[in-house]
Amino acid sequence: AKVSKKNARIVFYQGALDKEINDRDHIRHLLFQAVKDHDFFLNYQPIVDLSTGVISGYEALIRWYSSEIGFVPPDAFIGIAEEEGMIIRIEEWVIQQACSDIARLSECESRAINIAINVSYLHFISETFIETLKRVLSETGLSASQLEIELTERVLAEDGHQLEMKMRYLKSMGVKISIDDFGTGYSALNYIKDFSFDLLKIDKSFVQSMLSNDKNQVLVKNIIRLAQDLDIRVIAEGIEQQEQYQKLKQFNCDYGQGYMLSKPVRYEALEPGKQF
Ligand code: C2E
Ligand code: MG
Ligand code: MG
Ligand code: MG
């Protein structure tokens, strides 16, 4: 009985793996068509200044609705887009759309609203990235100081010298750079001193376990303090509960983002004047 159970499990795993590979191939196939047909749109999630309760800006998050399989979350297709060399084309559209929307919103609100855009390391290191930003800024009239580029720790595996030069150049333009999902990847402390990040986003996994796990709370509190000493602003991601919000304010975290404040929504549903 023991043996057959074990075999059954192997068969089960193999089946699951095959399914996953098939799904991936299927998504890959659909993604090529989606890029051709422009089947993407953006959601925006507010980033709130915790000291004033004012919305300081938004993070742009890509959405893909496939008429065949429905909504496909970005985590399920960004990696494939990177493998297939489609990511640059997709993100050029994201940058164009997000900057144009937020330039328009800023004009309506008569204040500078920021826009944070996630950029793949492959796009960031590409030759065309800075040209694209410059072109979009000039076409949309958005000020470079309203633009934040979110990079994950994955980018740090690339050539350090090239990276540093590019970051410096962006900084000289006035563009800000955030390190996203902080704490989940390579997380070596020396990179926050070696590279000049303007913003650090504490990953939602820390924020969400902060109340139940004392060690995580100590980590969050001290990441905030460390960043402030290095003149880096901190954004806490994934705030879902009032208690998390209060704790983060108490720790002097600069900005917050999460379902408790607002889920990511379409441009038409934005309420930039809302006070928290
Ligand atoms: P991210 O940049 O860390 O974005 C935050 C993710 O957390 C988003 O998931 C957002 O919907 C979700 N989130 C926000 N608040 C909460 C909360 O309170 N609780 C929980 N559980 N989740 C929350 P989403 O939209 O599915 O995006 C997932 C990831 O996909 C993003 O993580 C980002 O890494 C990537 N992504 C999205 N758009 C782009 C893009 O244009 N380019 C690239 N390279 N990556 C993108
Ligand atoms: Mg992000
Ligand atoms: Mg993140
Ligand atoms: Mg993430």
Automatic annotation (TrEMBL):
<protein>
    <submittedName>
        <fullName>EAL domain-containing protein</fullName>
    </submittedName>
</protein>
<feature type="domain" description="EAL">
    <location>
        <begin position="24"/>
        <end position="276"/>
    </location>
</feature>
